[in-house]
Structures are given as C-alpha cells and as structure tokens.
Amino acid sequence: MTGAPASAAGGPGAKPARGGKLGTAAVNQAGLWNIANILTMVRLLLVPGFVLLLFHDGGHDPVWRSFAWAAFAVAMITDLFDGHLARAYDLVTDFGKIADPIADKAIMGAALVSLSVLGDLPWWITGVILARELGITLMRFWVIRHAVIPASRGGKLKTLAQGTAAGMYVLALTGPLATLRFWVMMVAVVLTVVTGLDYVRQAVVLRRRGIAAERAAAAGRSVAAGHRSVATDVRVARTRNAAEAER
Q1: If pLDDT is split at 50, 70 and 90, which confidence band does 142 have?
Q2: Which residues have CB under 8 Å from 133's CB, separation 6+?
Q3: pLDDT tens track for 46-82
Q4: Rounded to 5 degrees, what angle do the CA atoms 143, 127, 196 make?
Q5: Distance between CA atoms of 83 and 53, rounded to whole angstroms?
C-alpha cells in the first residue's frame, strides 16, 4: 500500500484530468504511436500514392491529376499540424525529429521531380528548389554543434508558396489560371533563393559566435587553472618557509 488515494494513484476511482492539454502524463504514454507521429507517417505513405495517381494513364488525365492534387493537399495539411501538435502536447520524439523533415522534403521533392518528368515544370526550377533544401539541411548539420538555426517567417512563407504553386501545377489548369500558377511559382523560387541566402548568413554568424564562445570558455578555464597553480605554489612556499623557521 502506498497510502495514496485511488484517485491519485490512478486506481478505479481515478478521475480524468481537466483543463490541461489532453493531460500531459496520459499523452506521453502514447510513445511512438502518438497523433503527431501518425500524421507524419501518413504523409510519408502519401508520397508513393501521390506519384502513382499523378502518373496514372500517362500523367495527363485531369481526373487522376485531381486525385493526385487531393493526396498532395492532404500531405501539406498534415505538415501544418503534426509539428504544432508535437510541441503543444509534448509529443516530440526522436522518430518525429527525423521523420518530419524527411516527409516534408519527400512530398515536395516528389511533386517537383514528377512535374518536371511530365514536362509541366522546367527542370531548372526543380533544381533550384531541391538544391536549396538540400543545402540548408547540410548547413543545419554544419552549425548544429554551436546553435540551431530557427525557422523564420520567410521560410514558412516560402513553404506556403512552394506548396501552393506545386499544387496548382499538379492540377490540369489552362488559360489564365495556367499563367497565374507560373507567377506563383516564380514567387516561390524568389522566396526560396532569398530565404536560402538568409539561412546561410545566419549559419555563418552563429558558427562564428559559437567558435568565439568556445575559445573564450577555453581561455577562461586556462586562466582559472593558472590561478589555481599560483595559489598552490604560494601555499607550498609558505609551508616550506614555516617548516624552516621552526628548525
């Protein structure tokens, strides 16, 4: 017996917590199978499904491209919610940290490459966007020892522009809407390049600050060690002098 009442120990008389965000303790018990990770897994599974729908019947059937757009839209919507849910309800896991960015880049990369293969989207656009995403990912690893590059408003706007433009290209649009999607994609490309350069600037600054901080800390430890060494020498000298005076 622990002496705790049943309601506190989680026994038969326990009452569900009220007012909290789903009850943090209860949510944490979900482990890997929590709502945020499930949404990430759904997005990963939608990638091959989206590609199959897009290329069905040669890749130019408006109906099947509408189905592909629906899969793409669901994937982009889950991207908006899984990260928020993970942070809001303390559902952050190692799996989520790895799988979430992979799922984000997989669905966008699949859309861009597929559209270029079909001849709907110029390869240079696909190359610019994918090169930027890969480069920023590698740069994050480059500075992760010193600091984490935070997501910026520009980066979020870039993601929204990319998703909107790619989605418009997935649909079999004609006329003014086809022209509009081109300019939306151009906005996405500009934001991709501008935010990429800003990330490079942040990475360089953060790395320099991190290196400077490490050097300052090392110098501080060296000075402290020197002071301890001098103090030790003084104590030894005093002890020796005291011993000689006694003799």
Answers
A1: confident
A2: 105, 108, 109
A3: 999 999 999 998 898 999 999 999 999 999 888 777 7
A4: 35
A5: 27
245 shares a domain with 212:
yes
Give the chain as a DSSP string.
-----HHHHTSTT-----SSSS-HHHHHTTTTSSHHHHHHHHHHHHHHHHHHHHHGGGGT-HHHHHHHHHHHHHHHHHHHHHHHHHHHTT---HHHHHHHHHHHHHHHHHHHHHHHHTTSS-HHHHHHHHHHHHHHHHHHHHHTTT--PPPPHHHHHHHHHHHHHHHHHHS---THHHHHHHHHHHHHHHHHHHHHHHHHHHHHHHHHHHHHHHHHHHHHHHHHHHHHHHHHHHHHHHHHHHHHHH-
For 228-242, the pLDDT digits (tens) are 655 565 565 566 656
> Over 80: is that where the pLDDT of 177 sits?
yes
- Which of 61, 91, 120 delimits the end of a domain? 120
Looking at the fold, whether 128 and 235 belong to one and the same domain comes out as: yes
Q: Which amino acid is at 187?
A: V
Q: How far is CA 141 from CA 98, 137, 215, in A?
A: 13, 7, 21
Q: At 63, list the tokens.
A: 């109906």
Residue 166 shares a structural domain with residue 192: yes
- For residue 9, being part of any structural domain is answered with no
Domain of residue 151, residue span: 121-247
Task: Please give the pLDDT value at position 1.
Answer: 40
Taking the mean position of all CA atoms in its chain, how far away is CA 89? Answer: 17
The two tokens of residue 74 are 């669901």
